[in-house]
Design brief:
- The protein is built from 18 helices and 14 strands.
- The strands form five sheets. A six-stranded antiparallel sheet has the order 5-6-7-8-10-9, with helices on one face.
- Strand 7 and strand 8 form a beta hairpin.
- Helix 6 packs antiparallel against helix 8 and helix 8 runs antiparallel to helix 12.
- The structure holds adenosine-5'-triphosphate.
- Adenosine-5'-triphosphate binds next to strand 6, strand 7, strand 8, strand 10 and helix 17.
């Protein structure tokens, strides 16, 4: 058995000067071993995975086979991992001839060698290219399947791409578990914001020792080949993928209540710590696994402390609050706005405010909620982009020829729901005035949330029971075959009931119910647009001035 030395310095040190954060590599990971020495021929982690676990006797023959077949093999589990790493000197002596010249030097910086990726198509690491040829033209690390990260993790698959970099599924040869590694782009502005992300993740992990706030837990962070790598527990699909897989039909109110309850746990902690997430959206809410209905919030790459706000151009457009759009000071209340938008979308299957640009974004909001109060407009630094000198909203026709007029739609009919509590909950998340919006503490006591969960208050991870839903959709996408892989004994009663509804839901797909208001239907190409616009806003996280120019944009 191995354990991390508790005083592991974490490899990065933070230096603060006003709002600037500096990142410096201080040392490499140290690992303590509480077992005696092991012969390295049996040090399974440095051997191809399918050899491990089959036989402890390593022969030339199975070694060679493993070279060819390793990508077809199931990944090893902790039962077969090595309890002890090699030293770099030992690794060089045994396998140096199979490492690249670059690695032969690099490996000496790593006191513990858990995995070498010998059967991968390694990049040679020539000094002529930018970052020795390890990066593409955007500063993203070029991933090589089955190669190592920091002589410990084995790259298995790319599972996500964002403006900050890429997220890969990897096998941790030290712990024997699969992890997600976010590999940040090798560009100065991303280094800086990623340093803030790590700092916030570190605090949240310390505040959430019992794992009850539905916030992604960072496992580790390190610098590898000039890329900050943040490792996380491996999660399942994000809610946008789930809803897409479900043909954009949306979830039942009972499922929405569960999602709301889980997200509010996260927001409660953030509120208490005065942290603003700044990019809440379905893509940043992940299911714990394929068969689970539990969720966690990810991506603190745009987050900031309430008193250390740096950027004005934040949030993905569909979920962007009016104060951000209008150029007003913002606070934790912007996340409550996003929450309202997300829950509405989870119910209908479509974004509540699907603006094609910022002008239309505000028009979408005004269409339901009328003009913003004068008190907000007076201070809005970006007012002139949305309103003329007489205070009338500037009109815009979108790409589908639609013009949106203030106060012409009603929230309940847009949501197509007859639950007044749900409508009220959404309305109160979407107050123009940030101070008038529900706080997470108030929201958790709202009748929409307490309606069916009052008996369970005080146990944050427990989701409300679901016995009254208007539709039978479910947040669970697990098919029966997916579910068959899971032991029912290990599931909560809620999980099982979700599964049963999932089957009903499949039947009802033939006759879609609760179809969204046609005015709000956006096709897949818009969705792609939305995704790219979302990236645009996030790319701008690293370029705050872009939003601050306030040139009538390309809004
Ligand atoms: N722990 C995880 N487990 C599984 N998948 C993950 C995990 N973390 C991230 N992903 C996947 O990678 C995607 C991108 O991750 P993340 O949002 O953290 O990166 P980003 O560069 O900040 O993206 P964006 O530009 O959208 O903000 C997520 O939408 C998700 O699908």
């Amino acid at each position: 058995m191995t354990s991390r030395v508790p005083s592991d310095p974490g490899k990065l040190a933070w230096y603060y000067s006003n709002t600037k954060v500096y990142l410096k590599v201080t040392s490499l990971p140290k690992i303590a071993s509480d077992v005696g020495p092991l012969r390295h021929a049996e040090s399974t982690s440095v051997l191809p995975s399918h050899v491990r676990g089959r036989s402890s006797a390593i022969t030339d023959e199975n070694w060679n086979n493993s070279m060819v077949n390793s990508h077809l093999s199931p990944r090893p589990r902790s039962s077969v991992r090595s309890p002890r790493p090699m030293t770099p000197t030992e690794a060089l002596k045994r396998y140096g001839h199979r490492l690249t010249p670059y690695e032969q030097g690099e490996i000496l910086d790593y006191p513990e060698i858990w995995y070498l990726g010998l059967d991968s198509k390694k990049i040679q690491g020539t000094s002529n290219n930018a970052n020795h040829g390890f990066d593409d033209e955007n500063g993203s690390y070029i991933k090589v399947l089955n190669d190592h990260v920091a002589y410990r993790y084995e790259i298995l698959e790319v599972i996500g791409k964002g403006s900050f970099g890429q997220v890969v599924r990897a096998f941790d040869h030290m712990t024997g578990e699969e992890v997600a590694i976010k590999m940040i782009r090798n560009k100065k502005r991303f280094h800086h914001q990623a340093a803030v992300e790590v700092k916030i993740l570190d605090l949240l992990r310390r505040k959430d020792k019992e794992n009850i706030y539905n916030i992604i837990h960072m496992s580790d962070h390190l610098v590898f080949r000039n890329h900050l790598c943040i490792t996380f527990e491996l999660m399942g699909s994000n809610l946008y993928e789930v809803i897409k897989k479900n043909n954009f039909q949306g979830f039942s109110l009972a499922s929405i209540r569960r999602i709301a309850f889980s997200l509010l746990q996260c927001l409660r902690l953030l509120y208490r710590e005065r942290i603003i997430h700044c990019d809440l959206k379905p893509e940043n809410i992940l299911l714990k696994s394929k068969s689970s209905t539990s969720i966690k919030v990810i991506d603190f790459g745009s987050s900031c402390y309430d008193h250390l706000r740096v950027y004005t151009y934040i949030q993905s457009r569909f979920y962007r609050s009016p104060e951000v759009i209008l150029g007003l000071p913002y606070s934790m209340a912007i996340d409550m706005w996003s929450l309202g938008c997300i829950l509405a979308e989870m119910y209908t299957g479509y974004p509540l405010f699907p603006g094609e640009n910022e002008l239309e974004q505000l028009a979408c909001i005004m269409e339901i909620f009328g003009l913003p109060p004068g008190s907000l407009l007076q201070q809005a630094t970006r007012r002139r982009f949305f309103f003329d000198s007489k205070g009338n909203p500037r009109c815009i026709t979108n790409s589908k020829g639609k013009r949106r007029r203030p106060n012409t739609r009603d929230l309940a009919s847009v949501l197509r729901v007859n639950d007044p509590h749900f409508v009220d909950f959404i309305r109160r998340c979407l107050e123009w005035e940030p101070g008038a919006r529900l706080t997470p503490e108030e929201a958790i006591r709202h009748p929409f949330i307490t309606q069916e969960s009052s008996s369970r208050h005080g146990t944050p991870q427990t989701t409300p029971t679901q016995n009254r839903h208007h539709r039978s959709s479910t947040v669970s996408t697990a098919s029966s075959s997916d579910n068959s892989h899971n032991s029912e004994n290990s599931r909560s009663r809620d999980d099982i009931s979700m599964r049963l509804r999932s089957k009903t839901r499949d039947r009802e797909r033939l006759q879609p119910i609760g179809a969204p208001d046609p005015n709000y239907i956006i096709d897949e190409s818009s969705r792609v647009h939305r995704m790219s616009m979302s990236s645009t806003s996030i790319t701008s996280r690293g370029e705050p001035l872009e939003g601050e120019k306030f040139l009538p944009p390309i809004l």
